[in-house]
User: Fold these one by one.
Assistant:
Number 1:
Amino acid sequence: MIVAEQLTKYYGDRAAVTGIDFTIRDGEVVGLLGLNGAGKTTILKILSGLLLPTSGRVTVAGLSMAEQPEQARARIGFLPEQPPLYPEMTVNGYLQFVAHIKSFTGDIDAAITEATAAADLSHVRDHVIATLSNGFQRRVGIAQAIIHKPALILLDEPTSGLDPVQVVQMRDLIRGLRGKNTIMLSSHNLHEIKEVCDRILVIKDGQIAAEGTEAELGKRVTTATKLSVEVRAAAGAFREAMAKAKNVAHFEINTEKDGVTTATVELAKDCREELAKTLVDAGFGLRRFERIELELESIFLELTRKEVQS
């Protein structure tokens, strides 16, 4: 659907993004995750055709953004962080205006009906935009992005400035668009990315630090196996067993109460069966023995803190 090759953008002497390469497949929902100022908005503006890269190439559905800009842009819908609204217009009038400036050649009334239904705006089509809440104005921004039936939708911080209820509603709206469209959204909100995205690009200092699913990113951060263990044994006895066990890189006793010890154990390699046997052979009652999966927050902090080797 969309291919970015060696995208680089300088503002004067400052590099906003450098050497960005990625491919987004049809139907995917891909998240750009990074700290504020990492380069997420610059990437989306280049993909949308609003900003020319200093170097590099963008291809949308086989169309070059540099050589066929009008045809490429016609396949893209873009919601900036600040939606380009005219507050004095009604929702219906604004969407008619947007359809005209995007040179939409289909049935405009039908397109507005479809877009407002998708954005849950049907009941406020005749309302003046200025009278709507932030959440509904953001939905109008979504409607303008999809009015011309684009194949690719770009969303820049779509839940920024919304209250918790509006955030949940916006996520539901985005989920409703998946399958019908290819979507790329930017956010520094970890929960938002985790909830709606199939794949994540982690952006650090204008470069892709890592990409993949949450599980794949976790493997980039560490190859160690971390376990949550609960045994019927005294903490001292458990500590002695851990000191003798093979491939235990680190362990930490969390609690000891009524003869039960809980601990976190990190293995240098995945030898869970061997460790479980060691604990049982020591006479401990094994009450819990579970692998701890890294949360996206921990993965993100690690990826943005240091270089990650491929």
Number 2:
Amino acid sequence: MNHLFALESQLRLVGLALTAMGAFHIVLPRLVDWPTDLARTSLLTRQVSYAHLFFIGLTCVLLGLLPLCYAPELLAGTSLGTALLAGQTLFWGARWAFQFVYFSPTLWRGDRFRTAGHIALAVLWTWVTAVFAYALLVGPA
């Protein structure tokens, strides 16, 4: 029984972290100086970039609210709960892979702030993916 409570707690913490990550997208552009970078692009590119940023943030919030508010239901062993856990595992697993395969190390090497961000995100995506994968594989206790 303690195992289920621990996993449920981990799911809720992951949900909280993802919700916070989504909210963080409000300040992210200024933090990494995207307005300056995007000022040199076309209006279409700027608007698409900010629209994508908004929807990525919203996706993080919505995907975070599922485990934050419905952890017991996700662990109940229903087909819907299993499907949602599988979807989250695949989604965040892909994000984890992108951290190492897609983003060039030249983006963060030699810059302490960006290196810290890279490491923090690598740890975050590893934890998020591991919790969803473990919940999916272990199922209801």
Number 3:
Amino acid sequence: MRSVSKEQIYSVVAAIPEGRVASFGAIASAAGLPGRARWVGQVLSQLPPDSSIPWHRVVGHDGRVTCPQTQLAISRLTSEGIELVNTKINMKRYGWP
């Protein structure tokens, strides 16, 4: 079951378009795992930095970049045209879906 859930998470995260972000909670809900936002974070934290899954596009509900590799995530997000103010993203502007 857990591997199926991980695959669901990876699938939803892979669908986030370049230049957009989604919250951990939105990913959990879209993957059919409502209320499991923290688990989404745990699953994504286990991915290697060079993973093809765009883990850097998943942020806190308030738009904060909260991953362990904050600087790498910020670098990737800004290269996609996302503007940040103090590691925070405007979810109304860049949020997905």
